[in-house]
Fold:
Amino acid sequence: MLDPPKYGLVPYTGVFPIELTLDHTGPIAHSAADCTLLLEVIAGPDGLDPRQSVGVRTEVYTRVLTGDARGLRIRIVREGFGWSGASEPDVDQVVRDAAQRFTRAGATVSEFSIPLHRDGIHIWNAIAVEGATMLMVNGNSMGTNWKGHYTTPLLGFYGRSRRVRANNLSETVKLVILLGQYMQDNYHGHYYAKAQNLARVLRAAYDEALKGVDLLLMPTTPMKATLLPPPNASREEYVARALEMIPNTCPFDVTEHPAMNVPCGMSGGLPVGMMLVGRPWEDGTVLKAAHAFEQIR
Structure:
């Protein structure tokens, strides 16, 4: 179980930053109950993280674990399935079957279309590539222009190390640095800014889909686990393997909705994950549904 909670719910203090507007942190645990207990402990403002500057809302999450999903309304997002060149038919089918099993726990399941979901990865890319270059590279991992706790030993060590050991960075990180700097040099942040403006449009599309229902549902990753690239793999293959799994997950880094991976079945001896997405600050609803699914699995 992996629970990326609502953006800002868990303090990011002490975690290595990548892009301030995308960075989330949350619990990873063996079960929904463990995930809930851990979130209950770590959620809430710490006074050091500027992501938490506006109205952090917490609750006693362990109280929501009733073991059933009575009254929950769930929408399967069509665009989360059938990604060309990425989705595997068996993964799509396992997740659809799992969604219907929610009805045994008293939930109502329907299907819905969010066309803009397919553009979420492009919005994320524009923010992540340029933003990571400016913060994680040029800003030596901490950057400037934000209030909060700066981990100065990490900043100093990383700032020195990335200069003398840059060749040890992965091919994917090198690509991000080169592309991000190219975008800055030639377009001066224009497309980063456009993507941040589009983030509000994307957020509104999910908020509209969540009107009248409690959760959105889709595969966490479009495919099962893939083999690591061989040592002689091309740069193209290496980068493709590094980023192929994120088209359904990365939009919610942009929009700040809480989301959770729930193991929902096996295919070919490999696990398949189902993602549940809730309204902002309603992490408890996501956890309740995940726990209920475990009881009927």
